[in-house]
Model the fold of this input.
Amino acid sequence: MHRPLRAPLLLSCFALAAVACGDDGPGDPGSRDENPCASVATGGGGLGIVGCGEIRDRYTAELFVRGSTAYTTTWGQRSAGTQLQRGNAIYVWDVAGDAPQLVDSVIVAAGATTLGDVAVSDDGRWLVVAAEPGPLSLLVYDLANPREPVEVGRWNGGSGGHTAEIATIDGRLHAFVAVNSAITARPRLAIVDLGTPSQPREIHSRPLPATIVHDTHYRDGLLFLNLWDEGLTIVDVGGGGLGGTPAAPVDIGRVATVGGNAHNAWWFHDPQTNAKKYVFVGEEQAGAVPVTSGGDVHVVDISNPAQPREVAFYSVPGAGTHNFSVDEARGVLYAAYYNGGVRAIDVRGDLGTCTPAQKAPDGRCDLAKMGRELAVGLDGTVGVPGFDPPYVWGVHFAGGHVYASDMVNGLWKLRAAQR
Done:
């Protein structure tokens, strides 16, 4: 169902400042003083603000960018004047210009209060969104018109889908859904066949040992499960050489990362060296919107995937990470860091070898001490008129820019880090 956009609640930076929020250039006569969202401290050189689109009635959650269109989801409940708005909206943005512009919205009925992961299939045809608390767990939309998603399928997983990774395997679209725990059931991994998007079909269910399961990451036949204090588990679903399939996965290895609370992962493929050595794992500790968070980025060496081991970490005092996106061509990891903004980290080369001065007492290399931090953006150290300090949930590197979903303000478009 599409809802008309209401200007009083949903404003873009164009509406606030009458100009785009970034670089002066052709068609942009504005200055920093005239562009309120361009005055945020960026720190570290780079990640300067190009533009922003403001959302104030709901908390912004995940995002996905494809071409000139971005999709963001919403989380929890938020007071908007005299109303309490649920996190049941998907927003569609035009990001071709400097300032993201809202072009459509989709409201999900049937009791959803949070919409988590949002992703577009490799062929650009399908949009898949996780939903909770349940029983609705997954929604599938047809993107014949990318700016007007049309719902074609739903899957009820019981107690809601916290996250949903998608991938095309053997020509069929699949979703890997982290299903929430319930009073009578442990959290579980559900693998859903979306080969017929209008008829999602569960083909595998795995009860999980973790009290909380957050995210999955798929790449080249391997599935990485982030199982909180149980750590990172690597599973063969078709590329690990152990005969696994989406319907019958086979475990390969597991590692408990330091600090626990394993939340998300990214397996880095370096196109310059063809190395596929490192998996980055995000640790999410307790936090409070919009002021506090905690948790590090952990670097896991999977040279032997049956015996993964943590070799390095990156930490931001007083802030914690939530989601990643990687510019693999340039070897830059972008980490959403809640009240710490967006952090750009150099991840090319050997991350597990460092000097004694660059090591933590437990022997892991400290990427910050190694000088691996390239840039910082949206860290909230300088107030912006009309904007709250940013609280960044997610990031997506696409088309040479970095997009950041800010729970309290909306969507930001940033310059990429310079090397």
